[in-house]
Protein backbone atom coordinates (compact mmCIF):
# COMPACT_ATOMS: atom_id res chain seq x y z
CA UNK A 1 0.00 0.00 0.00
CA UNK A 2 1.32 3.42 -0.93
CA UNK A 3 1.40 5.86 1.97
CA UNK A 4 0.83 9.32 0.68
CA UNK A 5 -0.24 12.58 2.21
CA UNK A 6 -3.94 13.35 2.40
CA UNK A 7 -4.58 16.28 0.12
CA UNK A 8 -7.76 18.28 -0.43
CA UNK A 9 -9.53 17.53 -3.70
CA UNK A 10 -12.51 18.47 -5.82
CA UNK A 11 -14.53 15.39 -6.86
CA UNK A 12 -16.55 15.74 -10.05
CA UNK A 13 -19.17 13.06 -9.67
CA UNK A 14 -20.66 12.07 -13.05
CA UNK A 15 -23.83 9.98 -12.76
CA UNK A 16 -24.59 11.80 -9.50
CA UNK A 17 -28.25 10.75 -9.41
CA UNK A 18 -27.66 7.10 -10.32
CA UNK A 19 -28.08 3.85 -8.43
CA UNK A 20 -24.39 3.32 -7.72
CA UNK A 21 -23.81 6.87 -6.50
CA UNK A 22 -26.79 6.71 -4.13
CA UNK A 23 -26.30 3.19 -2.83
CA UNK A 24 -22.53 3.10 -2.53
CA UNK A 25 -20.60 6.26 -3.37
CA UNK A 26 -22.23 8.84 -1.07
CA UNK A 27 -22.21 6.57 2.00
CA UNK A 28 -18.56 5.78 1.23
CA UNK A 29 -17.69 9.48 0.91
CA UNK A 30 -19.45 10.16 4.19
CA UNK A 31 -17.31 7.58 5.97
CA UNK A 32 -14.18 9.09 4.43
CA UNK A 33 -15.28 12.57 5.48
CA UNK A 34 -15.69 11.32 9.04
CA UNK A 35 -12.09 10.09 8.81
CA UNK A 36 -10.96 13.63 7.98
CA UNK A 37 -10.53 13.38 4.23
CA UNK A 38 -10.97 16.84 2.81
CA UNK A 39 -13.01 17.29 -0.36
CA UNK A 40 -15.85 19.13 -2.07
CA UNK A 41 -18.11 17.48 -4.67
CA UNK A 42 -19.89 18.68 -7.80
CA UNK A 43 -22.67 16.27 -8.74
CA UNK A 44 -23.33 16.02 -12.48
CA UNK A 45 -26.26 14.46 -14.35
CA UNK A 46 -28.93 15.60 -16.80
CA UNK A 47 -31.91 15.93 -14.49
CA UNK A 48 -32.58 19.22 -12.72
CA UNK A 49 -31.62 19.72 -9.10
CA UNK A 50 -30.80 22.71 -6.96
CA UNK A 51 -27.86 22.37 -4.60
CA UNK A 52 -30.42 21.95 -1.82
CA UNK A 53 -32.51 19.23 -3.48
CA UNK A 54 -29.29 17.40 -4.43
CA UNK A 55 -28.14 17.56 -0.79
CA UNK A 56 -31.51 16.21 0.37
CA UNK A 57 -31.22 13.35 -2.09
CA UNK A 58 -27.78 12.48 -0.71
CA UNK A 59 -28.95 12.87 2.86
CA UNK A 60 -31.49 10.10 2.33
CA UNK A 61 -28.60 7.72 1.54
CA UNK A 62 -26.77 8.43 4.83
CA UNK A 63 -26.91 7.10 8.34
CA UNK A 64 -29.43 9.48 9.91
CA UNK A 65 -27.92 9.17 13.37
CA UNK A 66 -24.74 11.01 12.56
CA UNK A 67 -24.44 14.67 13.49
CA UNK A 68 -21.74 15.28 10.90
CA UNK A 69 -24.23 14.99 8.02
CA UNK A 70 -24.89 18.71 7.87
CA UNK A 71 -21.25 19.77 7.48
CA UNK A 72 -20.66 16.96 5.01
CA UNK A 73 -23.64 17.90 2.84
CA UNK A 74 -22.62 21.55 2.67
CA UNK A 75 -19.67 20.51 0.53
CA UNK A 76 -21.92 19.17 -2.23
CA UNK A 77 -22.96 21.24 -5.26
CA UNK A 78 -25.02 20.27 -8.26
CA UNK A 79 -24.64 21.18 -11.91
CA UNK A 80 -26.98 19.78 -14.59
CA UNK A 81 -24.84 18.39 -17.38
CA UNK A 82 -25.28 16.18 -20.42
CA UNK A 83 -21.98 14.51 -21.30
CA UNK A 84 -22.83 14.90 -24.99
CA UNK A 85 -23.06 18.72 -24.73
CA UNK A 86 -19.63 20.42 -24.83
CA UNK A 87 -21.01 23.79 -23.74
CA UNK A 88 -22.19 22.26 -20.44
CA UNK A 89 -18.53 21.56 -19.74
CA UNK A 90 -17.62 25.20 -20.29
CA UNK A 91 -20.04 26.13 -17.50
CA UNK A 92 -18.61 23.39 -15.35
CA UNK A 93 -15.10 24.81 -15.70
CA UNK A 94 -16.13 28.08 -14.02
CA UNK A 95 -17.96 26.36 -11.19
CA UNK A 96 -15.08 23.98 -10.60
CA UNK A 97 -12.68 26.93 -10.30
CA UNK A 98 -14.96 28.76 -7.86
CA UNK A 99 -15.32 25.77 -5.58
CA UNK A 100 -11.64 25.04 -5.86
CA UNK A 101 -10.88 28.56 -4.61
CA UNK A 102 -13.56 28.52 -1.92
CA UNK A 103 -12.19 25.33 -0.29
CA UNK A 104 -8.53 25.87 -1.20
CA UNK A 105 -8.35 22.52 -3.02
CA UNK A 106 -5.04 23.30 -4.81
CA UNK A 107 -6.45 22.32 -8.21
CA UNK A 108 -6.53 18.60 -7.28
CA UNK A 109 -9.33 16.84 -9.16
CA UNK A 110 -10.93 13.42 -9.23
CA UNK A 111 -13.30 12.70 -12.10
CA UNK A 112 -15.54 9.83 -10.99
CA UNK A 113 -17.30 8.43 -14.07
CA UNK A 114 -20.26 6.58 -12.55
CA UNK A 115 -21.95 6.54 -15.94
CA UNK A 116 -23.03 3.95 -18.46
CA UNK A 117 -19.79 2.82 -20.15
CA UNK A 118 -20.78 4.28 -23.54
CA UNK A 119 -20.28 7.75 -22.00
CA UNK A 120 -16.79 7.24 -20.54
CA UNK A 121 -14.92 8.31 -23.69
CA UNK A 122 -16.97 11.39 -24.53
CA UNK A 123 -16.97 12.59 -20.91
CA UNK A 124 -13.15 12.46 -20.88
CA UNK A 125 -12.85 14.20 -24.25
CA UNK A 126 -15.24 17.00 -23.31
CA UNK A 127 -13.45 17.54 -20.00
CA UNK A 128 -10.23 18.04 -21.90
CA UNK A 129 -11.73 20.29 -24.56
CA UNK A 130 -13.17 22.54 -21.84
CA UNK A 131 -9.77 22.74 -20.13
CA UNK A 132 -11.08 21.18 -16.91
CA UNK A 133 -8.31 18.60 -16.88
CA UNK A 134 -5.66 21.32 -17.16
CA UNK A 135 -5.23 22.01 -13.54
CA UNK A 136 -2.52 23.24 -11.18
CA UNK A 137 -2.82 20.17 -8.99
CA UNK A 138 -3.01 16.43 -9.71
CA UNK A 139 -5.87 14.74 -11.56
CA UNK A 140 -7.27 11.21 -11.45
CA UNK A 141 -10.12 9.51 -13.31
CA UNK A 142 -12.09 6.70 -11.69
CA UNK A 143 -13.71 4.49 -14.33
CA UNK A 144 -16.52 2.13 -13.43
CA UNK A 145 -16.96 -1.29 -14.95
CA UNK A 146 -17.45 -2.74 -17.51
CA UNK A 147 -14.37 -1.42 -19.25
CA UNK A 148 -15.58 -2.17 -22.79
CA UNK A 149 -17.43 -5.27 -23.97
CA UNK A 150 -14.52 -6.98 -25.73
CA UNK A 151 -10.84 -6.35 -26.37
CA UNK A 152 -11.44 -4.10 -29.39
CA UNK A 153 -13.90 -1.82 -27.58
CA UNK A 154 -11.74 -1.77 -24.44
CA UNK A 155 -8.75 -0.68 -26.57
CA UNK A 156 -10.76 2.06 -28.18
CA UNK A 157 -11.97 3.31 -24.80
CA UNK A 158 -8.47 3.15 -23.42
CA UNK A 159 -7.09 5.20 -26.30
CA UNK A 160 -9.79 7.82 -25.69
CA UNK A 161 -8.91 7.99 -22.01
CA UNK A 162 -5.17 8.11 -22.63
CA UNK A 163 -5.65 11.17 -24.86
CA UNK A 164 -6.78 12.93 -21.68
CA UNK A 165 -5.15 11.10 -18.77
CA UNK A 166 -1.85 9.38 -18.21
CA UNK A 167 -2.13 5.62 -17.42
CA UNK A 168 -1.01 6.41 -13.84
CA UNK A 169 -4.02 8.75 -13.51
CA UNK A 170 -6.60 6.15 -14.58
CA UNK A 171 -8.22 4.19 -11.74
CA UNK A 172 -10.23 1.30 -13.25
CA UNK A 173 -12.38 0.11 -10.40
CA UNK A 174 -13.29 -3.49 -9.58
CA UNK A 175 -15.08 -3.26 -6.26
CA UNK A 176 -14.19 -6.84 -5.33
CA UNK A 177 -10.61 -5.63 -4.90
CA UNK A 178 -11.84 -3.40 -2.08
CA UNK A 179 -13.42 -6.23 -0.08
CA UNK A 180 -11.73 -7.00 3.21
CA UNK A 181 -11.13 -10.71 2.66
CA UNK A 182 -10.03 -10.21 -0.93
CA UNK A 183 -7.34 -7.85 0.33
CA UNK A 184 -6.52 -10.48 2.94
CA UNK A 185 -5.61 -13.14 0.37
CA UNK A 186 -2.11 -11.74 -0.05
CA UNK A 187 -1.57 -11.57 3.71
CA UNK A 188 -2.91 -15.07 4.19
CA UNK A 189 -0.62 -16.46 1.54
CA UNK A 190 2.54 -14.47 1.93
CA UNK A 191 2.59 -13.79 5.67
CA UNK A 192 2.07 -17.46 6.56
CA UNK A 193 4.91 -19.79 5.56
CA UNK A 194 2.70 -22.71 6.61
CA UNK A 195 0.50 -22.01 3.57
CA UNK A 196 3.00 -20.60 1.12
CA UNK A 197 5.18 -23.71 1.35
CA UNK A 198 2.31 -25.94 0.22
CA UNK A 199 0.63 -23.52 -2.20
CA UNK A 200 1.31 -25.44 -5.41
CA UNK A 201 0.49 -28.39 -7.64
CA UNK A 202 2.27 -30.85 -5.36
CA UNK A 203 -0.12 -30.16 -2.50
CA UNK A 204 -3.28 -28.62 -3.93
CA UNK A 205 -5.83 -30.81 -5.70
CA UNK A 206 -8.08 -28.04 -6.96
CA UNK A 207 -9.33 -24.53 -6.26
CA UNK A 208 -13.04 -23.62 -6.25
CA UNK A 209 -14.24 -20.04 -6.57
CA UNK A 210 -17.95 -19.32 -6.07
CA UNK A 211 -19.73 -15.97 -6.47
CA UNK A 212 -23.38 -16.89 -6.09
CA UNK A 213 -26.19 -14.36 -5.88
CA UNK A 214 -29.81 -14.68 -4.84
CA UNK A 215 -30.81 -11.46 -6.62
CA UNK A 216 -32.06 -11.39 -10.17
CA UNK A 217 -31.42 -8.63 -12.68
CA UNK A 218 -33.51 -6.05 -10.80
CA UNK A 219 -33.73 -2.72 -12.61
CA UNK A 220 -30.69 -3.44 -14.74
CA UNK A 221 -32.38 -5.72 -17.27
CA UNK A 222 -31.33 -3.75 -20.33
CA UNK A 223 -27.67 -3.77 -19.23
CA UNK A 224 -27.68 -7.38 -18.03
CA UNK A 225 -29.40 -8.90 -21.03
CA UNK A 226 -26.71 -7.39 -23.28
CA UNK A 227 -23.98 -8.53 -20.92
CA UNK A 228 -24.62 -11.87 -19.19
CA UNK A 229 -22.74 -13.54 -16.35
CA UNK A 230 -19.48 -14.07 -18.25
CA UNK A 231 -18.90 -10.37 -18.92
CA UNK A 232 -20.63 -9.10 -15.79
CA UNK A 233 -18.82 -11.27 -13.26
CA UNK A 234 -16.19 -13.61 -14.74
CA UNK A 235 -14.21 -11.17 -16.91
CA UNK A 236 -13.57 -8.96 -13.89
CA UNK A 237 -14.38 -10.13 -10.36
CA UNK A 238 -13.78 -13.86 -10.75
CA UNK A 239 -10.58 -13.46 -12.71
CA UNK A 240 -9.30 -11.06 -10.06
CA UNK A 241 -9.97 -13.64 -7.32
CA UNK A 242 -8.29 -16.34 -9.38
CA UNK A 243 -5.28 -14.12 -9.99
CA UNK A 244 -4.84 -13.25 -6.31
CA UNK A 245 -5.04 -16.93 -5.41
CA UNK A 246 -2.52 -17.97 -8.04
CA UNK A 247 0.00 -15.11 -8.29
CA UNK A 248 3.64 -15.37 -7.28
CA UNK A 249 4.80 -13.27 -4.35
CA UNK A 250 5.87 -9.86 -5.61
CA UNK A 251 9.46 -8.94 -4.84
CA UNK A 252 8.21 -5.81 -3.10
CA UNK A 253 4.74 -4.80 -2.00
CA UNK A 254 4.61 -1.85 -4.30
CA UNK A 255 1.94 -1.12 -6.86
CA UNK A 256 3.85 -1.98 -10.00
CA UNK A 257 5.47 -5.17 -8.66
CA UNK A 258 2.08 -6.50 -7.55
CA UNK A 259 0.44 -5.60 -10.84
CA UNK A 260 3.31 -7.23 -12.73
CA UNK A 261 2.72 -10.52 -10.92
CA UNK A 262 -1.01 -10.33 -11.51
CA UNK A 263 -0.55 -9.90 -15.23
CA UNK A 264 1.74 -12.96 -15.38
CA UNK A 265 -1.10 -15.15 -14.05
CA UNK A 266 -3.53 -13.81 -16.62
CA UNK A 267 -1.08 -14.53 -19.42
CA UNK A 268 -0.65 -18.08 -18.12
CA UNK A 269 -4.36 -18.97 -18.05
CA UNK A 270 -5.07 -21.43 -20.83
CA UNK A 271 -7.41 -19.95 -23.41
CA UNK A 272 -10.36 -22.00 -24.62
CA UNK A 273 -11.04 -23.12 -28.16
CA UNK A 274 -14.00 -24.59 -30.00
CA UNK A 275 -12.50 -28.06 -29.55
CA UNK A 276 -12.06 -27.79 -25.81
CA UNK A 277 -14.79 -25.50 -24.58
CA UNK A 278 -17.52 -28.13 -24.21
CA UNK A 279 -15.37 -29.85 -21.58
CA UNK A 280 -14.42 -26.67 -19.81
CA UNK A 281 -17.45 -24.44 -19.52
CA UNK A 282 -21.16 -24.49 -18.70
CA UNK A 283 -23.47 -21.60 -19.48
CA UNK A 284 -27.01 -21.63 -18.19
CA UNK A 285 -30.08 -19.51 -17.56
CA UNK A 286 -32.45 -19.74 -14.63
CA UNK A 287 -35.99 -20.95 -15.08
CA UNK A 288 -38.84 -20.57 -12.61
CA UNK A 289 -38.16 -21.87 -9.13
CA UNK A 290 -38.52 -21.32 -5.42
CA UNK A 291 -35.90 -19.58 -3.31
CA UNK A 292 -34.93 -21.13 0.05
CA UNK A 293 -37.14 -18.55 1.84
CA UNK A 294 -40.15 -19.76 -0.16
CA UNK A 295 -40.29 -16.86 -2.65
CA UNK A 296 -41.47 -17.98 -6.07
CA UNK A 297 -39.29 -16.73 -8.90
CA UNK A 298 -40.28 -16.40 -12.52
CA UNK A 299 -37.92 -17.67 -15.21
CA UNK A 300 -35.31 -15.21 -16.55
CA UNK A 301 -37.00 -14.83 -19.92
CA UNK A 302 -40.21 -13.75 -18.17
CA UNK A 303 -38.50 -11.01 -16.16
CA UNK A 304 -39.44 -7.38 -16.93
CA UNK A 305 -37.68 -5.97 -19.98
CA UNK A 306 -36.05 -9.29 -20.90
CA UNK A 307 -36.64 -10.68 -24.36
CA UNK A 308 -38.70 -13.88 -24.09
CA UNK A 309 -36.23 -15.58 -26.46
CA UNK A 310 -33.19 -14.31 -24.59
CA UNK A 311 -30.24 -16.69 -24.68
CA UNK A 312 -28.25 -14.61 -22.20
CA UNK A 313 -26.54 -16.74 -19.56
CA UNK A 314 -27.28 -15.97 -15.92
CA UNK A 315 -24.86 -18.68 -14.75
CA UNK A 316 -21.38 -19.73 -15.76
CA UNK A 317 -19.21 -22.52 -14.41
CA UNK A 318 -15.79 -23.21 -15.86
CA UNK A 319 -12.54 -25.06 -15.39
CA UNK A 320 -9.42 -22.99 -15.89
CA UNK A 321 -5.78 -24.04 -15.87
CA UNK A 322 -2.89 -21.75 -15.07
CA UNK A 323 -0.13 -23.10 -17.24
CA UNK A 324 2.93 -22.41 -15.15
CA UNK A 325 5.13 -24.57 -12.93
CA UNK A 326 3.36 -23.78 -9.65
CA UNK A 327 -0.09 -24.68 -10.93
CA UNK A 328 0.68 -27.40 -13.43
CA UNK A 329 -2.39 -29.64 -13.76
CA UNK A 330 -4.42 -27.98 -10.96
CA UNK A 331 -7.99 -27.18 -12.03
CA UNK A 332 -9.43 -23.84 -10.94
CA UNK A 333 -13.18 -24.28 -10.96
CA UNK A 334 -15.29 -21.13 -10.95
CA UNK A 335 -19.04 -20.56 -10.83
CA UNK A 336 -21.28 -17.55 -10.61
CA UNK A 337 -24.96 -16.96 -11.14
CA UNK A 338 -28.08 -14.99 -10.36
CA UNK A 339 -31.02 -16.43 -8.43
CA UNK A 340 -28.97 -19.13 -6.83
CA UNK A 341 -29.68 -20.71 -3.45
CA UNK A 342 -27.44 -18.35 -1.46
CA UNK A 343 -25.56 -15.08 -1.66
CA UNK A 344 -22.00 -16.11 -1.08
CA UNK A 345 -18.48 -15.47 -2.25
CA UNK A 346 -15.86 -17.94 -1.20
CA UNK A 347 -12.67 -19.59 -2.34
CA UNK A 348 -12.01 -23.20 -1.38
CA UNK A 349 -8.51 -24.62 -1.59
CA UNK A 350 -8.70 -28.41 -1.56
CA UNK A 351 -5.44 -30.03 -0.52
CA UNK A 352 -4.29 -33.36 -1.88
CA UNK A 353 -4.63 -36.46 0.23
CA UNK A 354 -1.54 -38.29 1.39
CA UNK A 355 -0.89 -41.37 -0.72
CA UNK A 356 -1.46 -44.61 1.14
CA UNK A 357 -2.93 -42.65 4.03
CA UNK A 358 -4.05 -45.34 6.51
CA UNK A 359 -6.83 -43.11 7.75
CA UNK A 360 -8.27 -42.84 4.28
CA UNK A 361 -7.87 -46.56 3.59
CA UNK A 362 -9.50 -47.73 6.80
CA UNK A 363 -11.74 -44.96 8.03
CA UNK A 364 -14.60 -43.43 6.19
CA UNK A 365 -15.15 -40.13 7.87
CA UNK A 366 -11.82 -38.52 6.98
CA UNK A 367 -12.19 -35.83 4.34
CA UNK A 368 -9.66 -33.74 2.46
CA UNK A 369 -8.14 -30.71 4.14
CA UNK A 370 -9.87 -27.59 2.91
CA UNK A 371 -8.95 -23.98 3.41
CA UNK A 372 -12.00 -21.80 2.88
CA UNK A 373 -11.65 -18.05 2.38
CA UNK A 374 -15.05 -16.57 3.22
CA UNK A 375 -15.34 -13.25 1.40
CA UNK A 376 -19.04 -12.49 1.94
CA UNK A 377 -21.47 -12.43 3.64
CA UNK A 378 -19.22 -13.92 6.31
CA UNK A 379 -15.69 -12.59 6.41
CA UNK A 380 -13.15 -15.06 7.65
CA UNK A 381 -11.26 -18.27 7.15
CA UNK A 382 -11.87 -21.86 8.00
CA UNK A 383 -9.55 -24.78 7.87
CA UNK A 384 -11.10 -28.24 7.72
CA UNK A 385 -9.04 -30.92 9.41
CA UNK A 386 -9.53 -34.48 10.58
CA UNK A 387 -9.08 -35.47 14.21
CA UNK A 388 -9.60 -38.72 16.06
CA UNK A 389 -13.05 -38.98 17.49
CA UNK A 390 -12.89 -38.31 21.22
CA UNK A 391 -13.48 -41.39 23.36
CA UNK A 392 -12.96 -45.00 22.59
CA UNK A 393 -14.05 -45.07 18.99
CA UNK A 394 -11.06 -45.04 16.66
CA UNK A 395 -12.70 -43.24 13.77
CA UNK A 396 -11.82 -39.73 12.66
CA UNK A 397 -14.18 -36.79 12.56
CA UNK A 398 -13.87 -33.62 10.50
CA UNK A 399 -13.42 -30.40 12.44
CA UNK A 400 -13.25 -26.79 11.37
CA UNK A 401 -10.91 -24.15 12.76
CA UNK A 402 -12.52 -20.80 12.15
CA UNK A 403 -11.49 -17.19 12.18
CA UNK A 404 -14.43 -14.88 11.65
CA UNK A 405 -14.62 -11.11 11.51
CA UNK A 406 -18.08 -11.25 13.05
CA UNK A 407 -17.90 -9.03 16.00
CA UNK A 408 -16.45 -5.71 17.08
CA UNK A 409 -14.07 -5.12 14.23
CA UNK A 410 -16.76 -5.53 11.56
CA UNK A 411 -18.37 -2.19 12.27
CA UNK A 412 -15.03 -0.54 11.62
CA UNK A 413 -14.31 -2.54 8.44
CA UNK A 414 -14.64 -0.12 5.52
CA UNK A 415 -17.00 -0.97 2.72
CA UNK A 416 -15.26 -1.88 -0.56
CA UNK A 417 -16.09 1.50 -2.14
CA UNK A 418 -14.94 3.43 0.90
CA UNK A 419 -11.63 1.62 0.80
CA UNK A 420 -11.12 2.09 -2.93
CA UNK A 421 -12.14 5.75 -3.01
CA UNK A 422 -9.86 6.26 -0.02
CA UNK A 423 -7.01 4.68 -2.00
CA UNK A 424 -7.74 6.97 -4.92
CA UNK A 425 -7.77 10.05 -2.65
CA UNK A 426 -4.32 9.01 -1.46
CA UNK A 427 -3.05 8.20 -4.94
CA UNK A 428 -2.65 4.46 -4.36
CA UNK A 429 -3.67 2.55 -7.47
CA UNK A 430 -2.55 -0.91 -6.28
CA UNK A 431 -6.13 -2.19 -6.00
CA UNK A 432 -7.23 -0.85 -9.36
CA UNK A 433 -6.66 -2.67 -12.61
CA UNK A 434 -3.87 -1.67 -14.97
CA UNK A 435 -4.56 -1.54 -18.69
CA UNK A 436 -2.63 -4.71 -19.57
CA UNK A 437 -4.59 -6.63 -16.90
CA UNK A 438 -7.83 -5.49 -18.52
CA UNK A 439 -6.52 -6.31 -21.99
CA UNK A 440 -5.43 -9.87 -21.08
CA UNK A 441 -8.69 -10.56 -19.29
CA UNK A 442 -10.55 -9.51 -22.44
CA UNK A 443 -8.30 -11.74 -24.59
CA UNK A 444 -9.29 -14.69 -22.43
CA UNK A 445 -12.96 -13.74 -22.33
CA UNK A 446 -13.06 -13.11 -26.09
CA UNK A 447 -11.64 -16.61 -26.66
CA UNK A 448 -14.54 -18.03 -24.67
CA UNK A 449 -17.18 -15.94 -26.44
CA UNK A 450 -15.76 -16.90 -29.85
CA UNK A 451 -15.90 -20.59 -28.99
CA UNK A 452 -19.12 -20.93 -27.07
CA UNK A 453 -21.78 -20.56 -29.72
CA UNK A 454 -21.48 -24.29 -30.30
CA UNK A 455 -22.29 -25.23 -26.74
CA UNK A 456 -25.95 -25.38 -25.80
CA UNK A 457 -27.43 -23.08 -23.18
CA UNK A 458 -28.35 -25.16 -20.13
CA UNK A 459 -31.07 -24.29 -17.59
CA UNK A 460 -31.31 -24.42 -13.80
CA UNK A 461 -34.14 -23.85 -11.38
CA UNK A 462 -34.04 -20.56 -9.52
CA UNK A 463 -33.12 -21.20 -5.89
CA UNK A 464 -30.57 -23.94 -6.67
CA UNK A 465 -26.79 -23.92 -7.03
CA UNK A 466 -26.96 -24.17 -10.81
CA UNK A 467 -27.49 -26.94 -13.38
CA UNK A 468 -26.34 -30.52 -12.83
CA UNK A 469 -23.88 -30.04 -15.69
CA UNK A 470 -21.92 -27.79 -13.35
CA UNK A 471 -21.57 -30.70 -10.90
CA UNK A 472 -20.56 -33.00 -13.74
CA UNK A 473 -17.76 -30.60 -14.71
CA UNK A 474 -16.04 -31.49 -11.43
CA UNK A 475 -17.26 -35.08 -11.18
CA UNK A 476 -15.35 -35.92 -14.38
CA UNK A 477 -12.16 -35.07 -12.48
CA UNK A 478 -13.25 -36.97 -9.37
CA UNK A 479 -14.19 -33.79 -7.46
CA UNK A 480 -17.36 -32.08 -6.26
CA UNK A 481 -18.33 -28.53 -5.34
CA UNK A 482 -17.95 -28.25 -1.58
CA UNK A 483 -21.18 -27.01 -0.01
CA UNK A 484 -21.13 -23.34 0.96
CA UNK A 485 -20.52 -23.07 4.66
CA UNK A 486 -21.85 -20.55 7.09
CA UNK A 487 -19.46 -19.53 9.82
CA UNK A 488 -20.65 -19.92 13.39
N1 LIG B 1 -25.41 -0.05 -9.80
C1 LIG B 1 -24.51 -0.97 -9.45
O1 LIG B 1 -24.70 -1.78 -8.53
C2 LIG B 1 -23.20 -1.03 -10.17
C3 LIG B 1 -22.93 -0.16 -11.20
N2 LIG B 1 -21.71 -0.23 -11.81
C4 LIG B 1 -21.39 0.70 -12.89
O2 LIG B 1 -21.55 2.03 -12.45
C5 LIG B 1 -21.97 2.87 -13.52
C6 LIG B 1 -23.26 3.59 -13.14
O3 LIG B 1 -24.24 2.62 -12.91
P1 LIG B 1 -25.65 2.95 -12.22
O4 LIG B 1 -25.50 4.01 -11.20
O5 LIG B 1 -26.21 1.63 -11.83
O6 LIG B 1 -26.47 3.53 -13.45
P2 LIG B 1 -27.83 4.39 -13.41
O7 LIG B 1 -28.50 4.14 -14.69
O8 LIG B 1 -28.57 4.17 -12.15
O9 LIG B 1 -27.30 5.90 -13.38
C7 LIG B 1 -26.74 6.51 -14.49
C8 LIG B 1 -26.41 7.95 -14.16
O10 LIG B 1 -25.90 8.58 -15.34
C9 LIG B 1 -26.65 9.79 -15.57
N3 LIG B 1 -26.71 10.00 -17.02
C10 LIG B 1 -27.33 9.24 -17.95
N4 LIG B 1 -27.14 9.76 -19.17
C11 LIG B 1 -26.39 10.85 -19.01
C12 LIG B 1 -25.87 11.84 -19.90
N5 LIG B 1 -26.10 11.78 -21.22
N6 LIG B 1 -25.14 12.85 -19.40
C13 LIG B 1 -24.91 12.94 -18.07
N7 LIG B 1 -25.36 12.04 -17.17
C14 LIG B 1 -26.10 11.01 -17.64
C15 LIG B 1 -28.01 9.52 -14.94
O11 LIG B 1 -28.67 10.68 -14.56
P3 LIG B 1 -29.68 11.50 -15.55
O12 LIG B 1 -30.65 10.52 -16.07
O13 LIG B 1 -30.26 12.55 -14.66
O14 LIG B 1 -28.80 12.10 -16.60
C16 LIG B 1 -27.59 8.78 -13.68
O15 LIG B 1 -27.14 9.70 -12.71
C17 LIG B 1 -22.10 1.95 -14.74
O16 LIG B 1 -20.87 1.93 -15.43
C18 LIG B 1 -22.31 0.58 -14.10
O17 LIG B 1 -21.93 -0.46 -14.96
C19 LIG B 1 -20.73 -1.11 -11.39
C20 LIG B 1 -20.96 -1.99 -10.38
C21 LIG B 1 -22.22 -2.07 -9.70
O1 LIG C 1 -20.37 -5.85 -10.47
C1 LIG C 1 -21.36 -6.44 -10.13
O2 LIG C 1 -21.41 -6.96 -8.89
C2 LIG C 1 -22.65 -7.25 -8.27
C3 LIG C 1 -22.33 -8.14 -7.08
O3 LIG C 1 -21.54 -7.40 -6.18
P1 LIG C 1 -21.54 -7.78 -4.65
O4 LIG C 1 -20.54 -6.88 -4.05
O5 LIG C 1 -22.94 -7.58 -4.14
O6 LIG C 1 -21.17 -9.23 -4.56
C4 LIG C 1 -23.60 -7.94 -9.22
O7 LIG C 1 -24.87 -8.07 -8.62
C5 LIG C 1 -23.73 -7.11 -10.47
O8 LIG C 1 -24.55 -7.79 -11.42
C6 LIG C 1 -22.39 -6.83 -11.10
O9 LIG C 1 -22.52 -5.87 -12.13
From TrEMBL:
<dbReference type="GO" id="GO:0004345">
    <property type="term" value="F:glucose-6-phosphate dehydrogenase activity"/>
</dbReference>
<feature type="binding site">
    <location>
        <position position="145"/>
    </location>
    <ligand>
        <name>NADP(+)</name>
    </ligand>
</feature>
<feature type="binding site">
    <location>
        <position position="213"/>
    </location>
    <ligand>
        <name>substrate</name>
    </ligand>
</feature>
<feature type="binding site">
    <location>
        <position position="175"/>
    </location>
    <ligand>
        <name>substrate</name>
    </ligand>
</feature>
<dbReference type="Pfam" id="PF00479">
    <property type="entry name" value="G6PD_N"/>
</dbReference>
<feature type="binding site">
    <location>
        <position position="179"/>
    </location>
    <ligand>
        <name>substrate</name>
    </ligand>
</feature>
<feature type="active site" description="Proton acceptor">
    <location>
        <position position="237"/>
    </location>
</feature>
<feature type="binding site">
    <location>
        <begin position="82"/>
        <end position="83"/>
    </location>
    <ligand>
        <name>NADP(+)</name>
    </ligand>
</feature>
<feature type="binding site">
    <location>
        <position position="46"/>
    </location>
    <ligand>
        <name>NADP(+)</name>
    </ligand>
</feature>
<comment type="similarity">
    <text>Belongs to the glucose-6-phosphate dehydrogenase family.</text>
</comment>
<comment type="pathway">
    <text>Carbohydrate degradation; pentose phosphate pathway; D-ribulose 5-phosphate from D-glucose 6-phosphate (oxidative stage): step 1/3.</text>
</comment>
<dbReference type="InterPro" id="IPR022675">
    <property type="entry name" value="G6P_DH_C"/>
</dbReference>
<feature type="domain" description="Glucose-6-phosphate dehydrogenase NAD-binding">
    <location>
        <begin position="13"/>
        <end position="184"/>
    </location>
</feature>
<dbReference type="InterPro" id="IPR001282">
    <property type="entry name" value="G6P_DH"/>
</dbReference>
<keyword id="KW-0119">Carbohydrate metabolism</keyword>
<dbReference type="InterPro" id="IPR036291">
    <property type="entry name" value="NAD(P)-bd_dom_sf"/>
</dbReference>
<dbReference type="InterPro" id="IPR019796">
    <property type="entry name" value="G6P_DH_AS"/>
</dbReference>
<protein>
    <recommendedName>
        <fullName>Glucose-6-phosphate 1-dehydrogenase</fullName>
        <ecNumber>1.1.1.49</ecNumber>
    </recommendedName>
</protein>
<dbReference type="InterPro" id="IPR022674">
    <property type="entry name" value="G6P_DH_NAD-bd"/>
</dbReference>
<comment type="function">
    <text>Catalyzes the oxidation of glucose 6-phosphate to 6-phosphogluconolactone.</text>
</comment>
<dbReference type="Pfam" id="PF02781">
    <property type="entry name" value="G6PD_C"/>
</dbReference>
<keyword id="KW-0560">Oxidoreductase</keyword>
<feature type="domain" description="Glucose-6-phosphate dehydrogenase C-terminal">
    <location>
        <begin position="187"/>
        <end position="482"/>
    </location>
</feature>
<feature type="binding site">
    <location>
        <position position="338"/>
    </location>
    <ligand>
        <name>substrate</name>
    </ligand>
</feature>
<feature type="binding site">
    <location>
        <position position="232"/>
    </location>
    <ligand>
        <name>substrate</name>
    </ligand>
</feature>
<keyword id="KW-0521">NADP</keyword>
<keyword id="KW-0313">Glucose metabolism</keyword>
<feature type="binding site">
    <location>
        <position position="343"/>
    </location>
    <ligand>
        <name>substrate</name>
    </ligand>
</feature>
Amino acid sequence: MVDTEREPVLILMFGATGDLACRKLYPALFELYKKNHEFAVIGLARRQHTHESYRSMIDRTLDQNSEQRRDFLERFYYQPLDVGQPYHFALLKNIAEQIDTKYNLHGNRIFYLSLAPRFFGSAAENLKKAGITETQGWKRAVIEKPFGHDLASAKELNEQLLRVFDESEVYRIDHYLGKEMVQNIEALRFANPIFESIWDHRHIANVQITLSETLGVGDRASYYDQTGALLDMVQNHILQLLILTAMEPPSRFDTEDIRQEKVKVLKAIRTMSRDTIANELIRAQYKAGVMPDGTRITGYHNENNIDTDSKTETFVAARFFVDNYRWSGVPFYIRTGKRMAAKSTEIVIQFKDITQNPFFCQLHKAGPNLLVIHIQPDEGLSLKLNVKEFGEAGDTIPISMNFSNHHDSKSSTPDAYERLIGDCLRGDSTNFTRWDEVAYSWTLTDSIVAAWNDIPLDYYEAGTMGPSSSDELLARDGFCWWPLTKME
